[in-house]
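Q: What structure does this chain adopt?
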Amino acid sequence: MGAKQNQASLPCEQLARGKDVRSAQSRSQRQNQSTFRTRPVPTLPFFRRSLSNRDGAGLFFRRARELPRHMRLSHARAGPANFCFSNIFSTMLGDPPIAVNSQARMTGFNTTLTIDRLGERGEGIAQSPDGLIFVPYALAGETIVAEVDGSRGTLAEVLTPSPDRIAPFCRYFSRCGGCAVQTLAADSYARWKRDLVTSALRRVGLTNEVLDLAEAHGAGRRRATFHARYAKDHPTTGFMRARAHEVVEIDSCPLLAASMDGALPAARAIAQALAASGKLLDILVTATASGLDADLKGRGPLCEAETQTLVLIAQEHDLARLSNHGTIVVSRRTPVLALGKARVAPPPGAFLQATEAGEEALAARVCAHVAGARCIADLFSGVGTFALRMAEFAKVEAFDLEEASLQALAKAARAAGLREVAVSPRDLFRRPLGPLELDRYDAVVFDPPRAGAESQALVLSASSVPLVVAVSCSAQTFARNAAILCAGGYEMARVEPVDQFRHTPHVEIVAGFRRRNGPRKNWRLLGWG
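A:
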């Protein structure tokens, strides 16, 4: 235990800057005094201007408008100086609002903190006189030294490590933003992930049992998005740094499956070939049974010379297919994936589960819920992760916005041994299936994007569908949809968390909802009929 504690208490290599700041002080001095400075709290208009051109800012403020009324009115009631942007940020993530001094927030070096718990982004959370402080890579129960800037802290040293702290296995950990939690022992890690779901449900008033976390990392990630950024025509290719707009160059990632071994060299060669443009480049690589499938985003149209160069790179790195913004540049072999008894050829950039083990685990749980149903609707079906497997025992109608994915699904559904699969292109966000449409199904499966599908959940809650199976990769949106369905007369069965995004705050969830006996909502109140 002593050796483990000494190893765990060492500062991270990447945080040597903090070591320099503390070199003039002894540990006892650091614990007894800190140097602070104060600064005004930024107001919402400031952040709106500074973030207006950043990716996702529009979505962020749209989400902010969906917050509870008391949060939305806090700016108007308290005045601009008392409005803390981090209150909105924390509420969206499920953490309590931060109590903020109306004039300033604490800022200081060599601040000693005690971490109370691990938050929903994998950050250690400490309580200060001014409110909560979020410190990445710190663990619950630890006493640490951090550089504090408002509600954010940078870990400089672990004074008293958690007994659950272990050494990280990746040399890029704490620089690369891919993993949030690598230093937490397996049992505590599994409890933390399960508690993400339990806490989200509790916040919406649901106390249903959540089963233990199911491991679904399997052989590793079969797809990854590599980012390329340029300085003087020299590309840096790798993953994004945590909470920053810069790329960390990597040579390998231990979380990738062996089938992805050639992905990073191919991505680096592609980035170098397109360096002259200087444009931001994202390279999505997926491992298929036919080889690696790559799709480029951000470059825009290619000139003839660039196209020819990329064709040569695809040959050199044995890529099955290379596309640019969904348009095929070269297809040497058709990418193929096995989904149950069917084999599907996904279109470029199509959504897939991150690991094969995760896909199998989710599909097995969904099929177990709908076993015995004769006619099933699969909402947000994609290329048929669930539809093609459910078609082995039931008639399925699949709905999705992406017509290319539906075409791939329909073609794969011709496989022997499958029942009828009908596909219907539909934007379920703008035009969710109505109660009369839903009432003809024995079961409905819906697996929306991370933002959830509140409109569709509202209509499902007013339908007469006997069984609804919800799949989600977000504990918050899953809890919201679950509350809507339960309020509409459904009873939630077992809740099953599945971990295919190992060492991240993301968790997959599957749960079944059966309609209780008794009258259902008057769906005409929702605008139908």
